[in-house]
Fold each of these.
Amino acid sequence: MQLIFFIFPFLGFYKGVKDFFSAKYRYGILFFAFWFGYSVFQYSGDVTRYASDFSFFAQYSWSDLWHLIVNFSDESLKFSFLKRTTYNSKPDIFAVTLGFLVSRFTENPRWFFAIVSVIYVYFILKFLDEVVRFTGKHNTKGWRIYFAALVFIVPFYVGVTGIRFWPALFLFGIMLLRYFNTKEKKYIFYTLSAVLIHYTFIVPCLIAMIAVTVKVNRRIFKLLIFMGIVYVLLSSTTSSLDFIKNALSFFQNDTISNATSGYVDEDSIIKKSTNLATKNWYVVWRSNLINAFFFSFFILDFFRLNKWKEIKQNKSFETVYCFFFILALFTFNLGSLGRFVYLFYFLVIIRILMYQAVNKNDEMIRLSYFFVPIMLLHIIVSFRAGFYYVDPFLLISPSPALLFVQSPVSLSEFLIGH
């Protein structure tokens, strides 16, 4: 049976998900992750740029790699004699280091995507283990629903199509939860390891450090939450673009400007607004409903407007939970930095899991009735988007065949023609 899982990776993945809490089937998920990364259909976005730029590593020596690492934050020195590529253009070292190491034994970028995919999925599995350690494992229907939401809230394919941010997200989550589980402050320091993968994680790392070292009055949280909500309302209107531009006017230094390019610069904000306007209604509603549910839950929870049985308080979690809601508000319309809302998603789902463990009342059941259709829409839309990056052969071919054969069309094109 186990040999079949190795030969047909999708079967191994299915079994690994079906029996998720059985450690002996975890290898099926990781094996599938390898082949998904290796066979990823290079449709658009980062994955195509990383594939195209992989060839530049053939020109690199070990001293070139060292030069990029020690000068990772200095644009003038870093590119004094090396070409700017997708791998080295930002002030972090994960992608360029891994890409260089992979290039020492192959010129095929598919091996890079395969290894990235395994690292990403490994981080997800360790993150989920830490969640179970923190909340406990419960066999109630409600607990299983929200644990499944934690598994599927991040679209499955983004660890390969978004090389840096998503592995950093789960690594940060692992270290944060280890702090909650152990109370050892070294894990808050270890969250900085996420910065090596994606430099923007310096923001949540600093917030986490402040949250566990500084006692913050609830009145300050209330003020920040109010300001954040006002900001979201203002920055969600077209007329507020000037407001955002002015708020970002301090990005004058060339190094900072280059680092923030594609994240909080004016072009990225306009691009995000344009993309949002052209999306299908169900894509827009998916995001709106998810945000409305989680933001509303936080408000009910923070202001004690619910009738649920109180859970055992964890002061560190409470503080970090509030800080990351505020971070989600203030980065909500800031281009790619809006992805930090997923940190808040993680924490609010963990919070609900904690409530589910001690509440069996009708209010918690009704909460699930609201949430399930919202989450199902999210899963359907994200899986549908992911089909553009899936090679149909991954689902039906023996794994050795994927080394030699790739489909000329994506799973999306194969199923519906586009």
Amino acid sequence: MNFGTELKYKKELMNVDEWKDKFTVLDVEKEYSRPLSKHDGGVVEAKISASLDIADKVETSISYSIDSTGEGVTKGAITYKF
């Protein structure tokens, strides 16, 4: 069994306020909002994971990550290696 931890800091260097798209449909002008949230200070993400070799070529793993915006993600996988 293997355990792991990871700590990341992510900062978007481009100006996300300019990430908007304008379009016109039947003489009505609309604007898409930017595709991501703006975080001036960046986002910190922490992740913990565990993996277990079930058989010679089969591995199962699970991980949980949470970031400073409060979003948490749980992932699981079963991997077969040829």
Amino acid sequence: MLAALTLSGAAIGHPPEPDCSIRYSASEDLTQSVRRDGFRFDGFDRLCPILRRERLRVVVTSMNGVLLDRAYGWVSVVLEREASGVAETLTQQSTVMDRIADSPTAKRAELTALNNALRDLAADSDVHLRSVAAAEVRARALLVRPAQ
């Protein structure tokens, strides 16, 4: 089950910017972690206005758990156009491991991985924007039928 949530910068410890929020969809567990602890990554102030201006949201795929006496959190994020649902094919991923092998640590590792992936996405935002644009061109080409 995916939950959609919008968090503004002011609500999560970043300087307030008018109408600046990151729209994203993620698992209910990760959504609860974000609601509780917020986004904390370098580049929030860069990424947030880009998402608003380009009308994009972040789609999150993630897992957490305990494996071989380690807690882990893994996240993959992509940008998606809000109106069309067209998503880029480029992904930004992060994995965080911890020696404390329990569920709460795994959930924290997943949130840390999300923040790391968003930090890296913000740093490479130009590449990701080009990837969304290319995906939209491919989608349009599939929808256009030649005249008979």
Amino acid sequence: MGILQALSLYDDLDKGPRRKEAPEYPRGGRNRVEPRPQRSKGEALRDPIVITSPHYNRYSAGNVDVTLLFREFERIASVEVRDFSLNAARRGDYDIIHVHWPEWLPRREKTPWLAALSAMWVLNSLAAAQKRGTKLVWDANNTMPHEPVFRELTDKFMMRFAAMSDLFVSCNASLGDEFIAKFPVLISKKRRLLGNRNYVGVYAHETESSENARRLLGLPTDEPIALAFGSARHYKNLPGMIDTFARYRQRTNRACTLLVAGGVTDSALEREIRQAGERDPRGIRLDLHFVPESDVALYFRAASLALIGTVQAVKSSVAGLALSLGTPVWVPRRGAAIDDADEIDEPMLNTYDGGITEAIIHRALDMSENVRHHIPPALRDGRIGESWSAYAQRMLDEYRSVLSSRNDGR
């Protein structure tokens, strides 16, 4: 097998056996979408703008921010959302490739040379797309790649991806600063601060009383509940958080519950989490399954507070969810939380340094007992968060701006 044949195996981004490329369907029909002709400088912008994201799948759950943003795009007549494939990217079928997690573009391989081939194929495909006029947009989420198999290779891939980006978007300056410190090449790139989004009005049960939410979820009604929400990943340090919470309960004999809610796909991690929970089955509730959209708000309304327990969190969708649903949240003081804390005071947004400790758990539980669930004024009046429809329009303006630089020869 030649190297080009080997590289072509990495067209698919799933982790399973190679599958045929998914057909690309236009909205309103199932006719095959013809490849767009190669664009030239000076050519006027065309509608609809064709956009894609490797992290959006309209048929299944994914990252909440990408899902909500692209759902709004699909409602805009001047935008056409297509499914992502590397072959389509190489043909120049897209105007915009919107990337949330660059480190997840190469496939997760078990050997270094296969991982290197996958990374090479992705970068080569993105470069081919750019030669045909496609613009690469990086929507900042995390500076440290989550769960890389080969750290050095992943770091090199991320550096190269940063150098290729046409537009870098972050929610605020403190988050942007973290990325620039990690990837100095971004200083020379087009950068935009587009602010936060909120989740007000997105989920059912967002005004459910705490008592009803707890009853529906089968939770205690007479003690504080700390919530660790979201897909279980190694970097989130859930076993460590569970162990710390259990030690705190045993030392203080305090009536309180840690509720861990979210799906887990790594069987070894699931065993580790369950073993940690067995230390205190009375105080640890494990809902290790995917939480459907219909139940998301119930978990936050039932909780006294939400905990983000990893120091790697530079931007947390869970924090935004908690605040939008009126639940106090504790998050590491870094990245986006630094600027957000200037607008949202304690006890709704609380920051801490280092990892989760018993002292932090004690403070969080104490403060939560005196807090009424409410949406912070800064979110309610739009100072640090806006609707997803408004955010999608502003992102679309940035797409048009970066595409216009292609057409006027810059």
